[in-house]
Amino acid sequence: MYKTKILLVAILALAAFSPQAAEISLDALPAINDFAIAGGETEQYIAATNGGLYHSHDRGQNWRAHKTGFGLPATMVATTQEGAVYAFVVTLGLLKLDGETNQWQAINNHFGSQVLRQLNVSRLNPSRLVARNHYGKLIVSDNHGEDWHKLSGPYQPNSEAEKRGRELYVEKCQSCHGIDGIGETYTKQALTDQNYLMAPALDESAHAWHHTDEQLVETILEGSPRTPRMPAGKSSGVSAVDARDLVAYIKSLWTQRELDCQGPKHMECM
Ligand code: HEC
Fold first, then answer.
1. CA–CA distance from 130 to each of 18, 36, 162, 220 (Å)?
2. Which of 171, 175, 176 maximizes ligand 1 atoms within 8 Å of its Cβ, making it the mutation to test the pocket?
3. How many Å apart are CA 76 and CA 114, to the nearest integer?
4. How do residues 33-53 score in pLDDT, each as one tens digit?
5. What's the rounded Cα separation, in Å, for the pair 216 and 247?
6. Per-residue exposure over 243-270, b if at least 16 CB sit within 10 Å of its own CB, e if not
7. Cα–Cα dist 98/87, whole Å
8. Ligand 1, atom 11: closest residue by C-alpha
9. pLDDT tens, 182-226?
10. What are the C-alpha distances in Å from 230 to residues 126, 185, 219, 234?
């Protein structure tokens, strides 16, 4: 995750120097991450670039920055068979193009540390969206992109400890560590302030599993020595039993690989 952040900060710094409203040539376009052709009355080429969303109405000769998401890394753009257009812009989340006004509408910005790289909409059930994140995992929405879960299905606890841990998590941790432990969602502050430590994903995508149960319990109870942003749970009524249940919940977000490789063993699994 930290590597991703460094990359995004660098991209953001570069993007700040790009021209905004003026039309630019194909050669001047920032690096293209993804591309789509939108239909409608006139054909529109849309490029998701490191410096934001750009569109062209003359088949890619000249481009104009879209004011939504200008300067922010755009990581994917996709058209559906019905003609809808979706894009993902870091710090704005998933956007959908309104065909009437040609404006991007916000759909969901709760992706945590995930950045979307690809998106498909089911033809049989247009409310079902399937996306690939930059960790290479597929995630699914069954309500037009408003809520997302893993491909395996919405979260289900397997024990009382996991269930209780999840309730505590939603109440005390989710605002920073994200829904189902997907980490903190990127904001401009997080990307530009070098001293801002983001709340990492606690599911399998970051490195929570490099720690033993005891180390996780200690971080939860004592907080992080590196930043007051990770609070000491014991100061806000988190008991040792609560911390254990929170760890049970966090571990229920991991796959068998992380469970087998937890703690000091993680070096052998890298
Ligand atoms: C106000 C935001 C915030 C809240 C609320 C919060 N955390 Fe954190 N958490 C952080 C930050 C920021 C870090 C990174 C600390 C660091 O890098 O040293 C962190 C780190 C952690 C880590 C270490 C992860 C790793 O991979 O090393 C664990 C475990 C953790 N938090 C669990 C929790 C739990 C459980 C709760 C709820 C009881 C919680 N946190 C509440 C911000 C928060």
1. 32, 17, 27, 33
2. 176
3. 13
4. 999 999 877 899 999 999 999
5. 7
6. bbbbbbbbbbbbeeebeebbeeeeeeee
7. 12
8. 199
9. 999 999 999 999 999 999 999 999 999 999 999 999 999 999 999
10. 40, 15, 8, 12
